[in-house]
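Input record (one chain):
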Amino acid sequence: MTTAGKEEQKAFKQMLQRAPKNKVLQYLPRLHEEAFERIDCLQCAACCKNYSPRFKTPDVKRISKHLGMRESAFIETYLRVDEDGDFVVKKSPCPFLGSDNACSIYEVRPSDCARFPYTNEDVIIKRQPLTLKNATFCPITFYVLDGLLKQLK
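The corresponding structure, as predicted from the sequence alone:
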């Protein structure tokens, strides 16, 4: 599985800064779909092993209810507040990641997890630092950015 090194990062950054937003948004659905057809997240799970999503209030409510826990107990057991003031998991890998790389709370996972890696959204342009960071560990993000680079040449 391929991820972005320094050279690719530089090319992706230049492309995202210069690319016409409408063109990018036009190519995203197909590239996103292709990436998910070719790359199996369960073979990787780098996102769950190394990073944490934000757990917003609706996520905390939904997940704690699913686990049969009080919200305060869920927060105390699994979460901490990061430097941005967001709830994130206390440690990596995510406590809900199984040895088979499957998520034990998949049906009720945080919205950040459900949307990750944002390769079918305008987040890819609006939050370029996040997109570039994701390309360093997520083969799907790399695939989509590499595809965009080829399409926009």
